Amino acid sequence: MADSVPGGHVLLAKNSDRPVSDTQPLRFLPRRTAQAGATLRLAHVEIDDVEESYAHLGGSPYWCWGHEEGLNEWGVAIGNEAMFTRDWADTVSAVKGGADRDGGILGMELLRLGLERGRTAREALDVICSLVDRYGQWGSGVVGQPPVTGGYDNSFLIADAQEAWVLETSGHRWAAKQVTTGTYAISNQPTIRTEWDRASGDLVEHAVDSGWWESAPGRPFDFARAYVDPGTPLQLSHIRLQRSRQLLGEAVGAGGVGLGQAQQVLRDHYEDTFLGGPYFNAALPDFLSLCMHSHPSDFTWGNTAGSAVFVLPKRGEGLAHLWWTPVTPCTGVYVPVFVDAGRVPGIFAAAGTAGVRACPPEHAPVDTYDEGSYWWRFRRLLDIVKGGESAWTFNENQSVVRRAFDALERQWTAELPQVEKDALALRERGEHTAMADFLAGYTESCAQQALEVLEHLVAQLSG
User: What is the domain extent for residue 174?
Assistant: First the structure.
């Protein structure tokens, strides 16, 4: 979801839903350079590299070169969602029938390339659109699955301090809509209907030629209706999309969407609705919720693997940063992380026993617990809170976790304005190394506090 309030900061918030053991560390990637004519090998295709790629933070599945969410040194933030389209469905059908299909670029790779090559949200949009035009999207994005079961098209929220864009793609084609104020939410379905600001040149023609849209006098072309896969039930996405819209609208009506409101949206399981929340508890979900949990019957595809709120202030009004927590945000604590720090705590960037690598997901080893991984420490806490697959103890234990972690978030939220002020003062004096060290030290301090509270909770709830 994205929010832009006149006179306020742009916020972009994102939950990343992945298989239960798809470890998602948070890494800092410095600027890198490439020689003229160099190429870049991605999971399923080789593309042209560029001379200089920008530094950024990225939350990535442990096996993936690309990211589910990220923030670059210019204050551009991007999050993506899987989207199931007619182009995707036709390709799946053709491949199952024996056809060959060249690889394309994964949505997570497109996201990282946008961060590496875009100094503004609009530049990042241009980067992603040009790559979709040229290479398309095809390949597995899920560990252990081939493209026909692990592939998907993608939608993106792309924002900087000035503007935000919604980009929705289908194979080699796309439509984009600019967001200049207010709020916008996406889920795993197209949301752009009859109005957009930019699009592929043959967007309408392709749909008509494919038999997905019948032109008629006075009927405006509806991108979502034409391109959404009718074989993928919208129950997978529409309830979550509408819940996001409802919560954002309520927050706007109550004065605006701030950090706390964004975090609450990401932690939502339909509490305070006519559903009353899940029948038993969030760890035994009845529907796909915004904060997603795996179900013993596997009707959900995993857990939320990472969650972030990106804060994008105008220059001089603060520092672009994100509040990040691994695993399900309802059992996690959001820690402030600054791209200007030039690094993250080593434990943030660590996976489990498989380590961090870049390889096709079909070849990635299954990751398992390691004490040196911040992600796995929080995954272990989630398992303890649940008390087993039947999640008998989730409700009682989750309230204990929230009391402890909410206190930390309140503390850091109160401290952050002074932290930003002190960091900006160092930058104004040209002390960039000192500023980076100061910000990195602050995040390290927050991480250590979080781990101390986590270990206390583990001991308390395991007793």
Answer: 2-462
